[in-house]
Amino acid sequence: MSDNNRPIETIRDGRYKASVWSNEGENGPYLSVKFAKTYTDASGKAQDTQTFSDSDLLQVAEVARETYRVTRDLRQELRAEYGQAQTRNQAPPTEDRAAPNKSQGDADTGYQRQPRGRTRSYAR
Questions:
Q1: Residue 115 backbone zone (phi > 0: left; psi -120 to 50: alpha; other: beta)
Q2: Which one has a higher pLDDT value, 87 or 60?
Q3: More confidently predicted of 123 and 15
Q4: What is the mean pLDDT of the chain?
Q5: Could you tell me the pLDDT band of residue 40, with boundaries at 50, 70 and 90?
Q6: For a tag on the chain, would you pick the N or C end, based on fewer CB atoms within 10 A?
Q7: Which long-range CB contacts under 8 A does 61-64 form with residues at least 24 apart?
């Protein structure tokens, strides 16, 4: 996963979340996503599971839809950064990247981009 072992984005809807990771491959950077559901175990400790029941699937699908929107923008940014680094004959930047200056959002969901590496929720 990423160099600092932290997702660059986490999209959350209640107990459901998607963590977006930036990776380096032979052909440049790429993104991967891990979906999870948070629950409380018998001792009261919060745990994550990657197993979902059939009744979870609609909410997982909604988180996946929002995650697609986020990763689409991230993918464009990563490609641009990688292309600029290749032009300068340097390795692509690996530090945490800040969100663009302009506000990016989605009028349908009310979702707003925030600085990367943070957990955020969206309103449906």
A1: beta
A2: 60
A3: 15
A4: 79
A5: very high
A6: C
A7: 62/13, 62/124, 63/11, 63/12, 63/13, 63/16, 63/17, 63/18, 63/35, 64/18, 64/35
